[in-house]
Amino acid sequence: MRKIDKTDRRLLQAIQENALLTAEQLGEACGLSPTAALKRRKKLRSDGVIERDSAVVSPRALGFDIMALVMVTLDREDRGVIDRFNQDIRNTPQITQAYYITGDADFVLFIVARDMDEYDQFTREFFYDRHPIKTFKTCVVLSAVKSGGALPIPD
């Protein structure tokens, strides 16, 4: 694991707030010259600390009025079933986040749909037709209190 120093922390905090900072703005945020700040950011990328740059897009602005957290329990838990389920999750754009977890369920999925009819159709096709699912429980999101995924940067 790469050691994160004070300058890295400032850089990471700045780009989590705005990944589009200019070299000058980034340098100012972390106390370096623009060139040194860009080199530092490049090194954090190559070391795997920065995985990717992305935009946080509002689901509702794109017409996805249903956002759901779904806890899924597989009927069978052998390596092949889990690998196929993981691959299908990666290839399904309606599933925007997915986690293989411990506890009562096997997976937690974040799924978007335009309306309940579309969500119902999705669950029939994805859960009932394609995978050995024992159970799934849906929690519909009423409002996003905090989203975007910025991490706290430890000292």
Structure explained in plain terms:
The structure is a single chain. With 155 residues, this protein is of the alpha+beta class. It has helices at residues 6-17, 23-30, 34-46, 79-90, 116-129, and strands at residues 66-74, 95-100, 107-113, 133-140. It folds into two domains: 6-46, Winged helix-like DNA-binding domain superfamily/Winged helix DNA-binding domain (Arc Repressor Mutant, subunit A); 60-140, Lrp/AsnC effector binding domain/regulation of amino acid metabolism (RAM) domain (Alpha-Beta Plaits, 2-Layer Sandwich), CATH 3.30.70.920. It is built from five helices and four strands. Helix 1 crosses helix 2 and helix 2 crosses helix 3 (34-46). The two termini are 15 Å apart.
| Largest sheet: number of strands, sense, barrel closure | 4 strands, antiparallel
> What portion of the residues fall into strands of 2 or more residues?
15-25%
Assign the CATH superfamily of the largest domain: Lrp/AsnC effector binding domain/regulation of amino acid metabolism (RAM) domain
Residues in helix, %: 25-40%
Q: Round the Cα radius of gyration to an integer and report it.
A: 20 Å
CATH class of the largest domain: Alpha Beta
Helix-strand pattern? HHHEHEEHE
CATH topology of the largest domain: Alpha-Beta Plaits
| Structural class by secondary-structure content | alpha+beta
Tell me which CATH architecture of the largest domain applies here.
Answer: 2-Layer Sandwich
GO molecular function, one term: sequence-specific DNA binding
GO biological process, one term: regulation of DNA-templated transcription
Keywords: DNA-binding, Transcription, Transcription regulation
Protein name: Lrp/AsnC family transcriptional regulator
